[in-house]
Amino acid sequence: MATQKMLKFVTIGREMPEKRDAAVRSEDFHEIYREFAAAKATEQASRCSQCGVPYCQSHCPLHNNIPDWLRLTAEGRTQEAYLRSQETNTFPEICGRICPQDRLCEGNCVIEQSGHGTVTIGAIEKYITDTAWEEGWVQPIVPAVERPESIGIIGAGPGGLAAADRLRRMGYQVTVYDRHDRAGGLMIYGIPGFKLEKPVVERRNKLLADAGVEFVLNANVGEDISFDAIRGKHDAVLIATGVYKTRDLDIDNADAKGVVAALDYLTASNRVDLGDEIPDYEDGELNANGKRVVVIGGGDTAMDCVRTAIRQGAQSVKCLYRRDRANMPGSQREVQNAEEEGVEFVWLSAPGAFSGHVTGEAMEAQESDVDEVGDVPTISAVRVQKMRLGAPDVTGRQSPELIEGADYDEPADLVIKALGFEPEELPKLWGVDGLEVTRWGTIKADFQTHQTSLPGVFAVGDIVRGASLVVWAIRDGREAAESIAGFLSGAARVAAE
Ligand SMILES: Cc1cc2nc3c(=O)[nH]c(=O)nc-3n(C[C@H](O)[C@H](O)[C@H](O)COP(=O)(O)OP(=O)(O)OC[C@H]3O[C@@H](n4cnc5c(N)ncnc54)[C@H](O)[C@@H]3O)c2cc1C
Ligand code: SF4
């Protein structure tokens, strides 16, 4: 009976939920894919071949029981599919929206390899949990027992929140500290609404608060409260602070007015989307409206910047990347979405210098005293250097090489630097010498237990891995919760002896 409902990949083609027309979606910050209707989700789930060794599952960082919940969906048993799906994933509807499925679960789907087109796993995962929210099946945690021990979690991104959820389920008292005024980490202030609408994150934050997780927001650890104070207050501590130091450019006029960091730009846009008043957006500094925009970088952050600039009404948006399309780190699906929306990619190109003009105000200042007031020019163009791909480096990746004499000026009113992120120097910032870091500055933590060099202190997510993915932060957070519980029960046993 079950198999009759499945294995339909031979007769039913692959379909994604409908994508909104590029001209229409470029006008707003809503998600670009519509919902699967129930019948379509059932039909698409029935394409799964239920193969004996599900490679999709082994390539999902959470090892989701994908074939199981696809079968339950195909059989119309959506509530059971939801229960199965949320056993392994704290935020299935978020992963369904923003995981790079082409590199993870769907990229390893067996029917894709036989030429039939992958099962649309991410879209079905999203459908199942969105339906669960609509039907009221998603309810706050009510722990079976309350335990006295408390855990302080620093960072309310997916890593910290996934751990908070698991620990609260076990009955521990959980406090989450974050320097921002809203929880969610990069899910709220980094990733734009057209990939992940803000209410989807906010309802998860509320669910955790309703379950008794205490949020202490606007609390910058190291400034407003010390790390030692948090350690003193709690029986265990989890560090989940992400990576935020922007990589920079060492070129002429690197700090020209109108050259901005990607995360400042995206945070302002997300805040406006959430209804906040942002002076730097209102006065145009972090607003692409009417401007010729150049974004530098080829990762997912760059893709989010170019598509945000289009939605803000930029006059033109160009993306400079020093390698070619095949060698960019960003998802090909996002490049296609960006191109449909009017972004122009300038491959094999790198910025050599920024040129600028001195504005009237600065000129007046110059006439009186340049040094006193400063002579920062306003960006007017990017000197573009053309590159070719040379010999592979030690990692096997072809290194870009400069083509002499091929430079040209690209006019620009706003330049957004999306060159990646590095960890802040936490031991120095927080004054904790004993917290060991790697040579890249990420926190050293055991691969499985997530224990750091300090007893009772654990670490997860980007601050350990370097810039990574939401799904990996969730996995780390869930695993660390188990280790913290083990640590606390060991500590309780010792205290009782
Ligand atoms: C623009 C952008 C787009 C992305 N798109 C995707 C995508 O499509 N799919 C995907 O899977 N991943 C994406 N990522 C990556 C993903 O967002 C991260 O890998 C993930 O959020 C890491 O989770 P985390 O919990 O480790 O840290 P974060 O999400 O960074 O959360 C860390 C939290 O710690 C807080 N914090 C930091 N320092 C302190 C302090 N001293 N005191 C108190 N609080 C502090 C921060 O305010 C933040 O809320 C994207 C990243 C960016 C920047
Ligand atoms: S969590 Fe991500 S990788 Fe895993 S099944 Fe869902 S979309 Fe695929």
TrEMBL record:
Pfam families associated with the record: Fer4_20 (PF14691), Pyr_redox_2 (PF07992)
Keywords for this protein: 4Fe-4S, Iron, Iron-sulfur, Metal-binding, Oxidoreductase
GO MF entries: 4 iron, 4 sulfur cluster binding; metal ion binding; oxidoreductase activity
Keyword Transmembrane helix recorded: no
Domain of life: Bacteria
UniProt domain FAD/NAD(P)-binding: residue ranges: 152-477
InterPro entries: DPD_II (IPR028261), FAD/NAD-bd_sf (IPR036188), FAD/NAD-binding_dom (IPR023753), GltD-like (IPR006006), Helical_ferredxn (IPR009051)
SUPFAM superfamilies recorded: alpha-helical ferredoxin, Nucleotide-binding domain
Record-annotated Dihydroprymidine dehydrogenase domain positions: 26-136
Protein name: NAD(P)-binding protein
